[in-house]
Specification:
Helix content: 25-40%
Number of strands: 4
Largest sheet: 2 strands, antiparallel
Distance between the termini: 54 Å
Length: about 160
């Protein structure tokens, strides 16, 4: 993948995504994978680059805004608020899950490709249960293997 600055970046897919992509890529040998509904204009200012046109159908590559719109509409049925999610929500929910699983800030930074650790704060909000667990884990005088998130102990007794 080529980043905004023109550098080559690598994308690492989880197993399920890699299997899905391998099925999508089984047939075509060139051209875009995700296609728009209509054929691309052949000439004029809105004509896409040749690499963005499917050689067999003549359809244009699906744009990011249109792909996100389709994703949001499809996700609305799964969203408890009925709104749907954007690609941005999807990307950063992964960071939240990885943080909950105990990944370090530099690991999250590498996964998200954020330049500054501070910019991860808005996406990774673990809450007071995590704070309580971190405090308990680091307490050398505290009870070991007894404290769980949400439990309160006083002088060794659960309250």
């Amino acid at each position: 993948m080529i980043s905004k600055g023109g550098a080559t970046e690598y994308v690492y897919w989880a197993t399920g995504t890699a299997r899905l992509l391998s099925r999508l890529l089984r047939g075509p040998t060139s051209g875009p994978v995700f296609l728009a509904d209509r054929r691309a204009p052949a000439s004029g200012p809105r004509a896409p680059a040749a690499a963005d046109i499917c050689p067999s159908t003549g359809r244009d590559r699906l744009s990011y805004p249109r792909a996100e719109c389709l994703f949001t509409q499809a996700a609305a049925a799964l969203d408890p608020h009925g709104i749907g999610w954007t690609f941005h929500h999807l990307r950063h929910s992964v960071l939240q899950h990885l943080a909950v699983d105990g990944r370090t800030a530099p690991e999250l930074q590498a996964k998200s490709r954020h330049l500054h650790l501070g910019s991860l704060g808005r996406y990774v909000q673990l809450g007071e249960q995590t704070s309580a667990q971190v405090t308990a884990d680091a307490d050398p005088a505290g009870p070991t293997n007894r404290l769980q998130c949400g439990d309160l102990y006083w002088n060794g007794e659960r309250r």
